[in-house]
Amino acid sequence: MKKIVCMVYIIGFLVPSIVFSSPEEPIVVGIIEFDEKTGIDQENAAVVIPEILITHLKNIGKYKLAERVLLQKVLEEQELQVSGITDEETAAKVGQIFGLDAFIVGSAMKVGENITISGRVIDTQTGEIIAAGAIEFTNLNQLNKSLEELAYLLSGFSITEYRRVKFEQEISKNRFGVRIGSGYTNNPDYNLGSVHLAIGVYYQGRYIDVDFLAPMSIGGNSYSVMALINIMPFAHLGFGIGGIWGSDEHTNENSWVLGKESNIWHYYGVLFGISYRATENLRIGFYMGTPLVGDIRIIDKDNNEYYHDKIKIFSSFPSLPGLITMEYRFSDQWSVNPVLIWNGVEADIEEFRRGQNIILAIMLGYGFSL
Predict the structure, then answer these.
(1) Can you list the domains of the chain with their CATH numbers?
(2) pTM score
């Protein structure tokens, strides 16, 4: 009985301490003015770099940061030499004077076109390096993004972990946009083509993408409209379904296909495919489908008309619709989007009669994220 009572007391003491124990407090870290070994074409870089670094470190949230950058002048007033700050005695003095558990020191230099910035997190108790990292870039426009990478490295992330975090952050944004471009439509049966205008709108999110695309020939009679929905259960891979409408009218008095003077066809179909997010800036989609309803009308040189309103479903390629699309975002707002579309419909009769065209378009996209 006494053992049971004793166990009850122990459990009663331990459970509240486990449940209500506060999470471990983040260590307090200060950033010391960086050593600019050579000029990097950035005014006051020794202070600017740490200031930007503080912002990124705060966003990551691993450290509790001192608000102000510790200037070398302040350290010298305390008779601290930055060059020898990694020894245990000096590190401990910095921690005592400024109330820090650790501090960050670093340097910046430019060799040729390459700018290198390195940093180290040093424990004030032991003088040991807790974390370290270095970044290299060629354009000062990349300074902010590169320092974000350095902040992750100084927070204990590896390069692979940083890229995975950034990838998840980018694909989790709700992005809306429009696209416009031009291209060329070719009817291989008639060896004829026309220039077309292509327009589109899109939405991209973590788990769903929606795309609308409409190429329209200029001065011709060729049109296509596609609407796609991609479900993205995985970070990189998703599955799509959509609808497609195609229409084409061509007349050619000198057609190399004997007896064909006019070819007119329309159809409605469905598409199935996959969407692959290779990186946060690159997406690729591949879709194939089948016509569901449609018609083909052919008028020969003797003005004989052949009309077929029954079409084959899941016929052989190329009498099937398909789509290959790629998007590369080269800035936060702008992207380029090449698209290859093929429309195909075949009459469900013994005699081989079909309608088809191939569309190649390149569009420029503008988007914004919420």
Answers:
(1) 25-157 (3.40.50.10610), 175-369 (2.40.160.20)
(2) 0.75
